[in-house]
Amino acid sequence: MMKHAAVMTAVAIFVTSACSDLPGTSFKPGNDRMPTPIETVTAFSAAISKDNGRTAIRRWFTPETVWVNEGVATTRGIEEAIAFLDRPGRSPEIAAVHFDMLAIAVDGNSVLTERLDRFVRADGSEVAAIKLMGIFEVDGDHIVAWRDYADVNAGAKIARKRE
Description:
alpha+beta
């Protein structure tokens, strides 16, 4: 029953935060309290679609953050993560990635997400969408680890859609 209450609280925070002034979080700069792990991940997820994710990574990653795209790549730190986003061979028609949060739960400083990541063109039309599970480890208001698990053939599916 207690875990059910924690999940319901997390959902309530997520829904409430979607309507706040700072995109994706009820945490306000200048507020004395530290955002909760779920608020941090929600804010990061809301910001990832802007500037090809660079601004979000610079804001919420640390120089030691490990980002694992299981079966695709692993990065450490801000600069490696941004280099991965800007890598050669990435589809030039992908202007942004939008995270559609399907489910979110928290266990201590770990935030688990089920998402639909939508890859879109500059005009907003969809190139592809991938359903995946992710886990974020949060320390204070920073993401120190992020692991995503998806169909490892998803990149090939996106490439085929371009042809």
